Amino acid sequence: YPQGMVDFFKNSCPAGYTWQRSLLFEDGAVCTASADITVSVEENCFYHESKFHGVNFPADGPVMKKMTTNWEPCCEKIIPVPRQGILKGDVAMYLLLKDGGRYRCQFDTVYKAKTDPKKMPEWHFIQHKLTREDRSDAKS
């Protein structure tokens, strides 16, 4: 975060924060994802435990046919909800396809600190560039 802007994520440490995300794909596929992030000051590291579940991907769609190549860069709108102590994230993401097309996915995220946030940031944007790395040891 730029200097002078409240960093919700750093302010939530060392207790950490969680996030819950729904991913709605243009062809009806749906995923849910969640994460639990904590910081160990003693070990000088953070821990990220996540869960991911996807359903309804069409057999002839780009995910099941492995036609996606990477994520297109995007900008997430972050909306603070101070009464609930959460941030809401809203972003339209696009997976790039081998044929040059795009596959739309709507991400809706709720970020929540494990302790009451010291301060909440203002409404803002976060630029993302997710890079997919294909690994030879990954399960099919």
Automatic annotation (TrEMBL):
Asked if the keyword Glycosyltransferase belongs to this entry, the reply reads no
- Has the keyword Metal-binding been applied to this entry? no
Q: What are the BP-aspect GO terms?
A: bioluminescence
Q: Which UniProt keywords apply?
A: Chromophore, Luminescence, Photoprotein
Give the family from UniProt.
Answer: Belongs to the GFP family.
Q: Per its record, how is this protein called by name?
A: Red fluorescent protein-like Da2_2
